[in-house]
Amino acid sequence: MTVVSPTSVVSVGADLFADAVAGQAVDVSRVEWRPPMPGTEADLATVAADPLRRDANERALAAMLGVTAHLVDVVPAANALGLEPGQFLHAGPPIAWARASGPLRGALMGGAALEGLVDDPDDAVALFESGRTVSLEPCHHRGAVGPMAGVVTPSMWMFVLEDLETGRRTHCSLNEGLGKVLRYGAYSPEVITRLRWMGDVLGPLLQAAVRATGPVDVTGILTQMLQMGDEAHNRNRAGTLMLLRDLAPAMVGTGHDGAAVAEALRFVGGNDHFFLNLAMPACKLALDAARGIEGSTMVVAMARNGTDFGIQVAGTGEEWFTGPAQLADGLFLGDYGPEDANPDIGDSAITETAGIGGFAMATAPAIVRFVGGTVPDALATTRRMHEITLGENPRWSVPVLDFQGTPSGIDVTRVCRTAILPQINTGMAGREAGVGQVGAGLVTPPSEIFPLALARLAELARARATA
Amino acid sequence: MSRTHVELRGGAYADSVALLQVSRTVQGVEGVAAAQVAMCTPLNVEVLEQMGFEVPDAATPNDMVVAVRFADDAGDPDRALDRALAAVDEALAGLGRRTSGSAEVAPARTTGRALREAPGALALVSVPGPSALVEAMDALDAGHDVMVFSDNVPVEQEVALKRVASERGLLVMGPDCGTAVLGGVGLGFANTVRPGPVGLVAASGTGCQQVLALLDHAGVGVSHAIGVGGHDLSAEVRGLSTLEALRRLDADPAVETVLLVSKPPADDVAAEVRAFADGLSTPVGLALLGAGHPDLTEATEALLRSLGHEVPAWPVAGSASPATSGQLLRGLFVGGTLASEARIVAEGLLGDGASDGHTFVDFGDDAYTAGRAHPMIDPTLRLEHLAEAGRDPETAVVLLDVVLGHGAEPDPAALLAPAVAALDQPVVVALVGTGGDPQDRDRQAAALVEAGAEVHLSNAGATRRAVSLLPGGPR
After folding, report:
1. Is the pLDDT of residue B475 over 60?
2. What gap in Å lies between CA B333 and CA A445, rounded to an integer?
3. Which residues partner with A123 through β-bridges?
4. Of A7, A17, A401, which has the smallest distance from its Cβ to B124's Cβ?
5. For A328-378, how does the pLDDT look when each residue is reduced to its tens digit (9 = 90+)?
6. Which residue, B321, B237, B289, is CA-closest to B459?
7. Contact B454, B465 (CB under 8 A)
8. Which of B131, B192, B228, B250 to mutate to test the interface with A (most CBs of A within 10 A)?
9. Residue B103: pLDDT above 60?
């Protein structure tokens, strides 16, 4: 390599030097640099100088982007996850009943009734308070994800997604629709009745259809729905209908009762969020491929349990870095207001972790007002997320941004450097158990969890350097 | 039947219009008779079968198919396939390429992000020291050279940066690199120079600027002046950037001779650099600043002679009178190397008495610049000390530097000349700059002379003159 006269300069820092270069008729692009999050300078330098980091992040990003998720089966959680009576999965990082929020408690109570542990959901409070016959565990710890409260019990039917190259699998429950539903903490008789119908009719029907159809390429559907106005977190309309397109012929052909098939088709087609429960495990399947890569600063999970917001990072193993879940800013249903809303809840931020949802807001202008924004906000949001991500997804592209790939691979160091927080689209659950959904909006993680993760990455890097 | 290639790409997707363009591109590849890149919709599968391709039964509308038929005279079959698939990948990648004209885009917040949109750019980092490594590492990660103006960067961070750069064949200029001129483009504090046969490598910003100014006066041009930061030849850093800079200059046919400007390096580092330089095809001269070594002016003169060039008289304007009171020389500098050189020259002239109270202060030192701008940008601190030196009855002679060029104060004489005029003591100024510098060197010199100063182009010359004005100093 020889010395060349620079044809362009990227200047970060004093404007004076940028001006001096521009004065010599050289193109200058100026970085809008600001000091990093307080107290992170030393850890940022340590991690930036970690010899493993660059390669580790390249591998983590490539691993995530290389996964294609297929829907291969639909089976009860007891079979898929080995979940036993009394075992309950929930969204977010680990939490005990004593600190659980209203919607999580409501969903657990409803789940206990569904499993026949109690006759009346309200009787389940004593069951969970004693904790002797029941246990709580994060979905993420069992290869699963759950929207909102994310409660999974042994009898619930689960989508099974597989990376056909490695055989790795992830799981998610079937989506119940909107309004008074278990995942938003509602547990009235209609909620339990619907869940029983999903277990008795919908689950077996979908199982037969998937087994007859063969693996359904969920990643491929995501690719297409992102070009059809879905961001795959708060809007899943095109994805849901493409799934129906793929499964409906086989559902009809299963030999099930025609009225039951019709009801199932009506239920799925009428629930714009049905595909969310496939988008989420597809994202988890991709992100799980990046877990455990030493030195990588890429976030592999963002999840909330209604009390805490937690992240996991590729280079820090299974450790959760947690802080208080925030209240979403958005629109409320009916007479509900901010005082009725519970803090952020659900594993669905796995979509943003994989670069869609709020990160792909630019591709879903139809819902920007639903989450309280404007179309220019949506474009700016997606562009802003490129500041904190490692790369772009060549399969998932945004037409309105000239088919730029979605911003992929949240980098803990870039979040700390820019103080730009991941933007999450979310539904809002009622604060009280049993209420259900009260609104939808935008939310971010608590900022302090990124410096926490960074400090751990720096500690590990220093330990490697002195080893 | 001619040879065909059909492959399915699960999860890949592009719209049909875009894929028509891709197909057309691939059809134009040498050795390709027919090509179709499409989503496996029933309609497309039918078209493909009509074209004579066999589409696997497993294909679904979510799969992209790449189907190519090769011409009978396509030559090496593997190479034709490679060419065709490369064309497919390139055309598909091109679909996502951004064009200008989209809505307004907010400026990048990190160096890494900005470099994604600026292939081939040089990164120039001048953020506060604690954040400098992070921004500079962005540049190295993206495969770009970087100049780090920032100071207060710990030496272990400098070593970390330069090791990474060295492994990747990249150049880190700095930290604490004040000056670079690359192909005529000045970065940081840099003078306007004409192109020419000299390549400079400088572990010293103002030392580099002194040589640039002298060469310019002698009519000799400079191809590149590569700053490497003042610590590069230390025992810790071991000349990592100096070696890369020498390698680059050696590879440049426009560079006929190289001068390395530095403080005297650690002994073993000097030997390593010397050995490396001796292995190059371009001659490398050393200008090492220290007792017993030639000063920068003498080193420049030697360089001129080696090029067969005449050594001119170094210009002096105005005339200061010998001191009438006090006994001390007060050197107040904005350039660290200029301060060191003045101290070394003065000590050489004054002998053992040199340390008896004479001062050579560098206001660009880390100790003065933490949390404040460099004195070549903000003269306030030096002006305060100048007034104080004038009030000090022990001050006999004042020695100053004024450094011109890109990045420096637009009109340094505006504030300095009145401050000089207010002094009773004789004032000697080293005015380091070229005729092409934006501040107009001649006008600066005239203003300082008007204020009573004697103005030299050579810092060593200015120092000798200042010493000669001391009471009892060598005449």
Report:
1. no
2. 50
3. none
4. A17
5. 988 888 788 899 999 999 999 999 999 999 999 999 988 887 666 788 989
6. B289
7. yes
8. B131
9. no
| Bond into B175 cis (ω within 30) | yes
CB contact under 8 A, A49 and B108: no
Task: Say whether residue B137 is in contact with chain A using an 8 A CB cutoff.
Answer: yes
Residue B99 has pLDDT above 60, yes or no: no
What kind of architecture, by CATH, is found in domain B111-306?
A: 3-Layer(aba) Sandwich (3.40)
Question: Which structural domains are found in chain A, ordered by start?
Answer: 1-33 (no CATH), 53-64+290-466 (3.90.1700.10), 68-280 (3.90.1710.10)
Find out whether A389 and B113 touch, Cβ atoms under 8 Å: no
Which residues have C-beta within 8 Å of that of residue A72, sequence separation ≥ 6?
Answer: A160, A161, A162, A164, A169, A210, A215
Burial class (CB in 10 A: 0-12, 13-18, 19+), A365: middle
Q: Do A1 and B251 touch (CB under 8 A)?
A: yes
Annotate chain A with three-state secondary structure.
Answer: CCCCCCCEEEEECCHHHHHHHHCCCCEEEEECCCCCCCCCHHHHHHHHCCCCHHHHHHHHHHHHHCCCEEEEEEEEHHHHHCCCCCEEEECCCCCCHHHCCHHHHHHHHHHHHHCCCCCCHHHHHHHHHHCCCCEEEEHHHHCEECCCCCCECCCCEEEEEEECCCCCEEEEECCCCCCCCHHHCCCCHHHHHHHHHHHHHHHHHHHHHHHHHCCEEHHHHHHHHCCCCCCCCCCCHHHHHHHHHHHHHHHHCCCCCHHHHHHHHHHHHCCCCCCHHHHHHHHHHHHHCCCCCCCCCEEEEEEEECCEEEEEEHHHCCCCEEEECCCCEEEECCCCCHHHECCCEEHHHHHHHCCCHHHHHHHCHHHCCCCCCCHHHHHHHHHHHHHHEEEEEEEEEEHHHCCEEEEEEEEHHHHHHHCCCCCEEEEEEECCCCCCEEEEEEECCCCCHHHHHHHHHHHHHHHHHHC
| Contact residues, chain B, for A6 at CB < 8 Å | 120-122, 182-183, 185, 187
Fold of domain B316-469: Rossmann fold (3.40.50)
User: In this complex, how many residue pairs, one in chain A and one in chain B, have their CB atoms less than 8 Å apart?
Assistant: 213
Q: Which residues of chain A are modeled with pLDDT < 70?
A: 1, 370-372
Place B18 in a pLDDT band, splitting at 50, 70 and 90: confident
- Say whether B13 and A227 touch across the interface (CB within 8 A): yes
Of B109, B133, B377, the CB nearest to A420: B109
Contact A20 B117 (CB under 8 A): no
User: Cα–Cα distance between A124 and A106 in angstroms, integer?
Assistant: 10
* Both tokens assigned to A157: 């039917």
Domain regions of chain B by residue span: 4-95, 111-306, 316-469
Angle between helices A203-213 and A258-269 (to 10 degrees): 90
What pLDDT was estimated at residue B10? Answer: 81
What is the fold of B4-95?
Gyrase A; domain 2 (3.30.1360)
Paired tokens of A316: 């820090």
Which letter, b or e, does each residue of A80-113 get, where b requires 16 or more Cβ atoms within 10 Å of its Cβ? Answer: bbebeeebbbbbbbebebeebbbbbbbbbbbbbb
In angstroms, the separation between the Cα of residue B227 and the nearest Cα of chain A is 12
Q: Tell me if B107 and A383 make a contact (CB, 8 A cut-off).
A: no
Distance (Å, whole) CA A144 – CA A347? 9
Mean pLDDT of B459-469: 97
Confidence of residue B101 (pLDDT cuts 50, 70, 90): very low
Closest chain B C-alpha to A459 CA, distance in angstroms:
16
What is the value of ipTM here, to two decimals? Answer: 0.93
Q: How far apart are CA B258 and CA B254, in angstroms?
A: 11
Tokens in use for A447?
Answer: 């900022």
